[in-house]
What we know:
The protein is 82% helix and 0% strand.
Amino acid sequence: xxxxxQRILGRACDIELNEVRATLASFGLVLILMGSYYILxxxxxxxxxxxxxxxxxxxxxxxxxxxxxxxxxxxxAVARISIRKLVPSVYGLFAVSFLLFYLGTQTLEDRVLVDxxxxxxxxxxxxxxxxxxxxxxxxxxxxxxxxxxxGFIGAGASIGAIAGPAMATLLVGDIGTDPLLLxxxxxxxxxxxxxxxxxxxxxxxxGNLDLRAGVAAFDNIGGGALAGFSEFLRSRYLLVIGLxxxxxxFIGSFVYFELKNLLEAYDIEARSQIWASMDLxxxxxxxxxxxFATGRIAKYLGLPxxxxxxxxxxxxxxxxxxxxxxxTVAVAVQVVRRIGTYAxxxxxxxILFTAVSRETRFKAKPVIDIVIYRGGDMxxxxxxxxxxxxxxxxxxxxxxxxxxxxxxxxxxxVYLGRQFNAMKADESAANPLPDLNS
Length: 438
């Protein structure tokens, strides 16, 4: 049986016989984690239409503060608790927590506190579930194995990101939104046994019992973020990357709030279906665009164009929303924005970090990815609230403001692309290729 699976998997990756079961278990683990998140996500976002802009802004503020505290606590736990115990405990905690949230929805008459806590907690889950997974992978596979197998394992995340919203879309009409929490909790509960099995396979089949992931393996969830502030503030290049992220969160926040307000007239089941359907379309098209278009855009049109392309699309999208502030237009803008972000802007943004040193990358990147990103979400949520509830602007007027910010976002992308090209040119001039004909 294992030999047959090796031959089948061999068409997708260079896999050895002793790696088959561990690879399939890892593939299944990331699939259920992503699938569970994308079942919970539309439930979370559907709740927001019941709250005012100020209430959601406060929730985003709490999310920012809780995320900062959570990554610090997790970083401390990594240094004190073995990965063997820590990883299954984290997933077990999340599984139990969503079960308790479901029980709360069934037993408490006043659900406001439960729903708002669920909103923030799901946002924390989105920060941790995949980051912890890849850190665990670094503790399971050697670097050589990772090079050969992580591409295939990562495909499980893409499948989960498609299967999760598909399940939510199909189920919510029959069972409602609350039972989706129970479905997600059951899926996450499968993670600890898979993690424990993988830990056994690590020694029995992979032969990596002595492999231990260092602290650097956990940098992507915020380890050492405070030490990166000085690196971030000293570099104009990194500061502009931070500004690019800030403008990105501005547009993301404004489109989210516009859509939240337009969906207020729908019941929560209909909202959940709309959000889940958007997730499904976005994740399918992201895979297609990422596989067939992103590399070609960056290669033939250059990084300045690649970084500015999505912001330019958002200028047009926000102007369309200003002219026709209806649900269908808002949904279309949100779908285009997210596809462009995941398939084009995010990969292009990661290219920018190849122009700085490895030390700077590890110190400063968590500051940008967590503090600037989450802080931008928080500040821009309050900016939207100030425009709507403070100044009394309508959705059309706010969309015009968003279009202006998207212009600045595009200009920042062009600047960063040109700076990257200049830095790479200087590096090539300083380290010329040897003359093979001499």
